[in-house]
Design a protein that fits this description.
Blueprint: E1 2-7, H1 18-27, E2 30-34, H2 39-51, E3 56-60, H3 64-67, H4 76-86, H5 106-113, E4 118-127, H6 136-159, E5 162-168, H7 175-184, E6 193-196, H8 202-211, E7 214-217, H9 228-233, E8 239-241, H10 263-274, H11 278-292
Helix pairs in contact: 5-6, 10-11
């Protein structure tokens, strides 16, 4: 059994063949965690988990790219207008059909997070890759992202559910990770912290390992060598596997829509990079997932 700890098969891009995708994962022995990126997709993840108990679990979270000052709009019309005029809403048609921004609502996210199908809070965090330049606008976006991040950290702490974090630094920097680590360090007694799709430097990796963090790696490690040094350094009991489907499909499926059944290719590559037996990777990463997310099969 393998565990895909970060997938989005509840997104509309799977509406036509979702059951077939799940069946392929089932035949391959894959369990999965469907990750929310806003309240609507978090609820969709919960609904799917309810339909497939013991196979699928969910998270409740608000992606930092979707925060971007949306909570400051006074009404729905202004929310849409601002998104169009200032470009602050990142719309991905794979994720949602309509280019309509959703306002950050902490109370709604908390209510969704209380469902038993939800085993983590996120994806939440800091994304400095798509900021609006370097001026006042970018500063405000950072402040809004941090505010939403802190709210979701508190939800995770209150409900004792793991944090699934999306941190993407600006090019050539560790800035988002540095700031996330600073924010996390101000809290005591936090549940497990997972850095999804980890891309930090070797120096940052050392800091995060020392902080007790866990890390996910996906299909990109099958065709890019940028992650090898970090993977070799991070203890296997801190590593989890993900697809981030529908994104970043591994070789030999690169360029296609990703899906959970492809995770076996990532597991094989991870075993090669770490220089350990493939079966050990399967057993340890699955054990890590069950432990971090408090899942009992």
């Amino acid at each position: 059994m393998l565990f895909d700890v970060h997938t989005h098969i509840h997104f509309p891009i799977y509406d036509e063949d979702r059951e077939a995708v799940i069946e392929r994962a089932r035949k391959a022995g894959i369990k999965m965690l469907c990750v929310g990126t806003q309240a609507a997709s978090s609820q969709a993840a919960v609904d799917l988990a309810r339909k497939y108990p013991g196979e699928i679990w969910a998270t409740s979270g608000f992606h930092p790219n979707h925060v971007a000052r949306a909570q400051h709009a006074r009404n729905d019309a202004e929310l849409t207008e601002n998104a169009e005029q200032r470009g602050k809403w990142h719309h991905d048609p794979k994720e949602q059909k309509e280019p309509y921004p959703e306002q950050f609502d902490a109370l709604n996210l908390r209510e969704i997070a209380k469902n038993k199908e939800v085993v983590a809070i996120g994806e939440c965090g800091l994304d400095y890759y798509r900021l609006s330049g370097d001026g006042h606008q970018a500063l405000r976006e950072k402040e809004d992202q941090q505010e939403a991040f802190e709210v979701q950290i508190q939800i995770a702490k209150d409900l004792n559910k793991a944090l699934m974090m999306h941190c993407r630094p600006s090019k050539g920097s560790d800035d988002a990770y540095e700031e996330a680590l600073r924010v996390l360090s101000t809290y005591d007694g936090l549940p497990p912290r997972v850095f999804h799709f980890y891309v930090g430097s070797s120096a940052m990796t050392k800091k995060l390992v020392e902080s007790g963090a866990c890390f996910t790696f996906g299909g990109v490690i099958t065709f890019a060598r940028d992650y090898d040094e970090q993977i070799k350094y991070i203890p296997l009991d801190r590593i989890l596997l993900e697809t981030d489907a529908p994104y970043a499909a591994p070789n030999p499926h690169r360029g296609k829509r990703n899906e959970p059944s492809y995770i076996i290719e990532t597991a094989k590559k991870l075993a090669g990079i770490k220089g350990v037996d493939f079966e050990k990777v399967i057993q340890q990463t699955t054990k890590n997932a069950l432990t971090v997310f408090k899942i009992q099969l």
